[in-house]
Amino acid sequence: MPDVTKVVILGGGPGGYEAALVGAQLGGEVTLVDSDGIGGSAVLTDCVPSKTLIATSDVLSAMSEATGLGLHPANGADDLSGTVITDLGAINTRVLHLAQAQSGDIATRLVEEGVRIVRGRGRLVSVGTIVATTSLGEERLEADVVLVATGTHPRVLPDAIPDGERILDWTQVYNLTDLPERLIVVGSGVTGAEFANAYDALGVPVVLVSSRDMVLPGEDPDAARVLQDVFERRGIEIISQARAMSARREGDGVVVGLEDGREVRGSHVLMAVGSIPNTAGIGLEEAGVTLDKRGYVTVDKVSRSSARGIYAAGDCTGVFALASVAAMQGRIAMWHALGDAVPQLKQDTIASNIFTAPEIATVGVTQKDVDEGRSTADVLMLPLASNARAKMQEFTDGFVKLFCLPITGIIVGGVIVAPTASELIHAVSLAVSQRITVDDFAHAFTVYPSLSGSVAEAARRLHNHGKMATAELTN
Ligand SMILES: Cc1cc2nc3c(=O)[nH]c(=O)nc-3n(C[C@H](O)[C@H](O)[C@H](O)COP(=O)(O)OP(=O)(O)OC[C@H]3O[C@@H](n4cnc5c(N)ncnc54)[C@H](O)[C@@H]3O)c2cc1C
Ligand SMILES: NC(=O)c1ccc[n+]([C@@H]2O[C@H](COP(=O)([O-])OP(=O)(O)OC[C@H]3O[C@@H](n4cnc5c(N)ncnc54)[C@H](O)[C@@H]3O)[C@@H](O)[C@H]2O)c1
């Protein structure tokens, strides 16, 4: 390696910008090439905007549940949420401003740390050479280390092309200034579920077209069941085992055609049918970077691609489509490339959250791992309905589920379905990453009354599981 390592990063999302910060910290000469704005899709179109929208919809969800707390609307509405004017134009203006401001803050920090930002589209022309196409023309950048962090874009069905007005992908919903009269959401993965939940809370009649039996395929089935029940109770119309084939405009509305010939009518449709990696046409395979059959860059646990000197991070690797994972993969790449101590990416410690009401947070070993024999963990599920704080808050849906190893009682995973699951999961995440036992976890104080008391209670109830297994082993 030369005295100063030249690093060129393609993509300014969390995978790219977090790597840039580490690269600069470790003395690299870092150039970040980004085509659509620093912060990437995470900040400008996906994670930050959706969670900002959900900050508003959460207030309305709480208001709609407040009747049970003795708060009645004064104007004859069904619940408190019916007493406010939901100004979607104002909500979306706030969302977009916040995203732009966040993007600006990240760009400022990068420049302060000595990262050079090139606004343009980059492509590899050889292993160590990138050409960035900018508004001023082409710029050639030589690199000792390249990081590809180009993310993904929304998948489009050939007969349901988004028009940005009524047929929308999730990057386009923030253009709306008026609430849809009836929103069809196609796809009941995390994106579809979060938007169906948010728009329902905003007071929009929602139809959810779900290709499976239940919403959130691939997530914890008990958690998915809770959400399905909550959605149905709130009046979201779920069309299960239905695959959308087309979406077309008709008059002032849209018609979604299903595979079985049925048609669903609404004022708008949001297509949330997955993503495609941004890896085509940027010289990756020509430079020796192996892509899998879906187009994701194949990487190892220190973010190395198959081509020497070329690393990849984030959604374009298909590892786990989360901003936190992208950021960690990016940092790992720089630690490795620039010779610092480097921890491998541990996928079995990743925590994530689905921002619905209630939230669904998970970490580590899953129910599927246990059911399919990949983990021998003991499982305990504790409904939150008996928790004192949950009763005070009139919260009846949700549970805590913990997974621990049978012999040692080490906590290896957890699922929390609760209004603040995204915060509650951190204790479990810490337990998983630090290999804390159920006994140690249960011995730590929790506040009374609190939902976290149920997390500790679940650990306490797993005490005998570990003991029983140990006794069986030693007898
Ligand atoms: C609706 C939605 C909500 C989400 N919510 C959450 C959440 O709450 N929490 C969470 O952890 N994750 C969330 N995610 C996932 C999260 O957004 C992604 O995991 C994250 O964006 C991945 O970061 P990245 O750096 O890999 O890519 P991106 O954020 O996609 O950034 C990649 C950047 O590279 C640019 N680019 C592409 N090609 C080139 C090129 N050739 N040259 C230069 N630049 C290029 C792109 O324009 C983009 O700016 C959500 C996803 C969606 C769809
Ligand atoms: N809160 C968060 O952290 C958050 C939020 C959103 C997305 N994400 C990340 O993004 C990833 C992708 O999530 P996603 O929901 O965008 O995509 P996805 O691929 O997980 O889900 C898309 C869903 O659409 C369904 N589908 C596909 N074609 C269909 C059709 N024609 N008709 C009906 N249904 C159809 C699929 O069966 C699937 O269930 C997640 O795994 C997650 O990692 C995270």
From TrEMBL:
Cofactor: FAD
Domain of life (superkingdom): Bacteria
Comment on bound cofactor: Binds 1 FAD per subunit.
Residues that bind FAD: K51, G122, D315
Pfam families registered for this protein in UniProt: Pyr_redox_2 (PF07992), Pyr_redox_dim (PF02852)
Keyword tags: FAD, Flavoprotein, NAD, Nucleotide-binding
Family matches, as PANTHER family: MERCURIC REDUCTASE (PTHR43014), NAD(P)H DEHYDROGENASE (QUINONE) (PTHR43014:SF1)
Family to which this protein belongs: Belongs to the class-I pyridine nucleotide-disulfide oxidoreductase family.
Protein name as it appears in the record: Dihydrolipoamide dehydrogenase
Species per Swiss-Prot/TrEMBL record: Raineyella antarctica
Origin organism lineage: Bacteria, Bacillati, Actinomycetota, Actinomycetes, Propionibacteriales
